[in-house]
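Assess this one:
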Amino acid sequence: SCVEKRDWRFIRVLQPSMRVLWVVFFATSIRFAAPVQCPKGQYASPGDSSCKTCGPGKYAASEGQAVCTDCPTGKYLEDAATSMAKHDDVTDCENCPVGMFSSSGQITCTICRKGQFSESLGQSACTVCVAGKYLSDDGNIVSKHYGAHNCISCLAGQYAISTGSSSCTICASGSWSDDNATTCSPCGKGKFLADNGMSSYA
């Protein structure tokens, strides 16, 4: 906001019959301070007297910004306001690596959760494993989330009915499955299976 400054001057005037104190106001100058014009990579909120460099996950691609812009989804910006040159364009926001993702305005990317993978750079979300497969790592080791090949097929005698599974379920007694199954099949008429987790019956 503009700041108004005034000078006040007091003059004492002596009259022949008495002393009278006259207060005379002189508005000698009224100066208006221009709003702060920040360069790219910095910002100034209303009322600020100086510019500040954008923080992590943010940038300012044009001059005179009151707020910084969040990096897009699938990208991140680690620098903690050490240099405005690292926050002056959207290209300063880097793509998330394979196996990771991010929402907007992030300082780093997150490893995909269990049952998920990301096989391309700059992803805003991870892809789920198909039914019949699973991925047990829950965002701990990025190399286990590089692609669909990290999703492991359920073994014979097991199944995974849902997409994005973190484990397979053993078939119940009286049912069986082959590899990569999404459900188990019941034994035929005149046959039975007492054990869980069998792949076939005779």
About this structure: The mean pLDDT is 84. The first strand starts at residue 11 and ends at 14. Residues 147 and 162 are 18 Å apart (CA to CA).
